[in-house]
Specification:
Elements lengths: L1 H6 L5 H20 L5 H5 L1 H10 L1 H4 L7 E5 L7 H7 L4 E6 L2 H14 L4 E5 L11 E5 L4 H7 L15 E7 L13 E4 L12 E7 L5
Parallel strand pairs: 1-2, 1-4, 2-3, 4-5
Antiparallel strand pairs: 5-7, 6-7
Helix pairs in contact: 2-7, 4-6
Length: 209
């Protein structure tokens, strides 16, 4: 928890309370339904929570923004971002039902009213969003294909509507066809070794395209 406060010192009492509860909720639910590896559950704040919040180092979502988290797994990055941006709407999507059971229980345990979940493949989703977030669930060309037509036309942020993708390693090959991407190195925001090769990739997407 100190790790979160180190980089996000202006949290409200309510946000601190929710971030503190996260660990207990995940440890409890992970014993019943394994969504986070044992090694990672011991380092939940470093490997999952703070990693998810790296998106907030790139953008501050405005109130009433609609954000979809594709392939949310155990609820990352969606749950930490929903705590940080309580006035935004988060739609967490995954094709594996048991993972969403954990997400739903955690969201309920935290009293998060700005989170909804859907058990489906993302291609079936019909709504549109300001941003689509994810943690490396597929190579970018595949991901772009999945979320085609799901971006809102109206722009409310300095960053153009599109994808915010948490990814690691060398992305040269994967992103070679996308000339409009911006890559943010997490080592610019966080000093821990874990983040040395990790990045947030912003890819603007046209409405309907």
């Amino acid at each position: 928890m100190e790790l979160i406060l180190k980089y996000f010192p202006n949290l409200t009492e309510d946000q601190i309370d929710k971030f503190e509860k996260l660990s207990h909720l995940y440890q409890d639910w992970n014993l019943k339904i394994n969504v986070v590896s044992r090694k990672d559950i011991d380092e939940l704040y470093m490997r999952h929570v703070l990693h998810s919040l790296a998106i907030a180092k790139v953008i501050e979502f405005k109130d009433d923004s609609d954000i979809m988290d594709v392939g949310t797994g155990g609820g990352f990055p969606g749950i930490p971002l929903a705590i940080l941006f309580p006035e935004c709407n988060f739609h967490l999507v995954d094709s594996i039902a048991k993972k969403l059971k954990v997400v739903n229980e955690v969201a309920q345990g935290l009293g998060l009213e700005n989170v909804k979940t859907t058990h489906t493949r993302v291609e079936e989703i019909k709504e549109t969003y300001d941003f689509i977030v994810s943690r490396a669930v597929a190579a970018m060309p595949t991901f772009v294909h999945w979320v085609k037509g799901k971006i809102k036309k109206e722009q409310n942020h300095e960053l153009k509507n599109g994808i915010l993708y948490l990814k690691g390693g060398d992305l040269t090959e994967e992103l070679k066809d996308y000339k409009t991407t911006t890559i943010y190195n997490l080592s610019d925001f966080y000093s821990e070794d874990f983040y040395e090769t990790k990045k947030v990739v912003h890819l603007p997407l046209k409405w309907g395209g």
